[in-house]
Design brief:
The protein is of the alpha/beta class and about 180 residues long. Helices cover about 35% and strands about 15% of the residues. This is Glutathione peroxidase.
Length: about 180
Amino acid sequence: MKSSRLFAALLLAAVAGPVLAECPALLQGELPKLRAKESVDLCERFAGKPLLIVNTASHCGFAPQFKGLETLYKQYQGQGLEVLGVPSNDFKQEAADTAETAKVCYANYGVTFTMTEPQVVTGEQAIPLFKQLAEQSGAPRWNFYKYVVDRQGKVVASFSSLTKPDSDSLREALEQAIASQP
C-alpha cells in the first residue's frame, strides 16, 4: 500500500514538472482578492512567473492606464506574464467602497488580471509585498507605480506613474522578465 502511494506521488511530481524549492521573500503571504471571498496566495499564484505589480487608485488621473495594463496582460499572458493590481488609498484617490473599486476595474476598464482589496503600500504600515518592493527598488511615489519582477522574485525594473503601459521601456523590461529562467 505504501509503495503505491509513493509511486503515485512520484508520478504526480514527474507530471507536474519542477517545483520551486523556496518561495521568494517578495511573494510570501496572502492578500484578499477584490470583491471575492477568497484570498490569493502570492507564492502559489505567482512564484516562478514574470510579474507586473501596480499600485492602483480608482479616482486617480492615471486610472485609464487600467486599459493599457489589461492589453499588456492579454498580450503576454501566453508567455507566462501575470499582472497584480493592488488598490491603495495612500495618495487619497481610492474609492471608500470596494464595490466602487471593483466597478472601476471590472466594468469600466474590463480588467481580468488579479486585483486585491485596497492595501497600504507606503511607509511603516505597508504590506510585506510592498515593503519588499521598496527594499529592492523604492516605494511607490504615486498611484500606478509599476514593478517588473522576474521569475526568481527579483525586481528588474520599476516605473513611475508617468510611464504608460505601452511604453517601449516597460515592454522591454517585461520581455526581460519573461525571458528569465525560473
